[in-house]
Every structure is written in C-alpha cells, then in structure tokens.
Amino acid sequence: MSFKQPVSVLVVIHTPDLQVLLLERASHAGYWQSVTGSQENGETLLETARREVQEETGIVAPAECFVDWDVTNIFEIFAEWRHRYAPGVSHNTEHVFSLEVPGTTPVRIAPDEHLAYNWHPWREAAEKCFSWTNREAILMLPARSKPPSR
C-alpha cells in the first residue's frame, strides 16, 4: 500500500468580483471547501495545484494563472483520515494558491469526491468552510487579488 504524503495544496478558485467556488465533500455532506489535495511523488506544488483543480472541477488552467501565496499551514490530520498516511504521521503541511477564473467558467465536479458545488461571495464562502485554513485563506482573498499598484 502506498501512503499519501502529508503535504498538500489548497486552491481558492474565484472570479474577478470575488465569488468563491466551494465544493461539498462526498464523504461528509455539509462540509464545504475549496480544492485541496495531496502532493504526489515527483510533483511540484504548482503541478499538484493544477492537477487537483482539473480533477475536482474540470477546470484546466495554465500554470501562469495560479498564484502561490507563499502561505503554509500546518494542521492535525483528522483521525478518520490518518489511515491514508504512513504510521505515526499526524500533521499535514498545506500550501495556499489561488486561481482567478471568468465568472462563466463551467465546473464539472468529481462525483466520488464531491456532492455539489456553489459560488458564493467571499465572506459567505469563508463562513461556510469547515476548515480553519480554508476560511483564513478566503478572508485574505481581497488583499491578495488586488492588482499591483503602479
């Protein structure tokens, strides 16, 4: 059996007017989140972010559209999911990215991972997230998405 690496990405997908895409977990109805996923052997974090976005939403975006926030969160892995990791692994290191997409971007969820998707204004999206790291990232979105000053 191969174990998941305790290194993952969180990708906040949003529109220019800060509507945030949330996905409802299939394994936990009512648990809403942004795209997340574990790094696979040999992948860069950016490659992980691109793969997970495509797998979970059907959105294919070029690498230059992803923004690495240089934000890292360390959190305890829920006990119910620890069997996926090597014995003794209890914490995960998560790297935050964002991806801005047009408001008309079609979404195709992975039915084995998610039950539904919705777009929410950023404050509402943050309130719906079960994960504190996801909530914090969405709350940082307005500052992160502003164009650089000239």
SSE sequence, one letter per element = EEEEHEEEHH
Strand order of the largest sheet: 4-1-6-5
Number of structural units classed as domains: 1
Number of helices: 3
Helical proportion, percent range: 10-25%
Amount of beta strand: 25-35%
Low-confidence stretches: none
**CATH superfamily grouping:** Nucleoside Triphosphate Pyrophosphohydrolase
Q: Count every beta strand, where a strand is a DSSP E run of 2 or more residues.
A: 7
CATH topology: Nucleoside Triphosphate Pyrophosphohydrolase
Radius of gyration: 15 Å
Shape: globular
- What about the largest sheet? 4 strands, mixed
Structure description:
The chain has helices spanning 45-57, 122-128, 132-145, and strands at residues 7-14, 19-25, 32-33, 35-38, 66-76, 91-100, 114-121. With 150 residues, the protein is an alpha+beta fold. It has a single domain (7-145), classed as Nucleoside Triphosphate Pyrophosphohydrolase (Alpha-Beta Complex), CATH 3.90.79.10. Strands 4-1-6-5 form a 4-stranded mixed β-sheet. Strand 2 and strand 3 form a beta hairpin. Helix 2 (122-128) runs antiparallel to helix 3 (132-145). The longest helix has 14 residues, at 132-145. It is globular. The termini are far apart. The mean pLDDT is 93.
Q: Which key features would you list for this structure?
A:
150 residues, alpha+beta, Nucleoside Triphosphate Pyrophosphohydrolase, four-stranded mixed β-sheet, three-stranded antiparallel β-sheet, 3 helices, globular
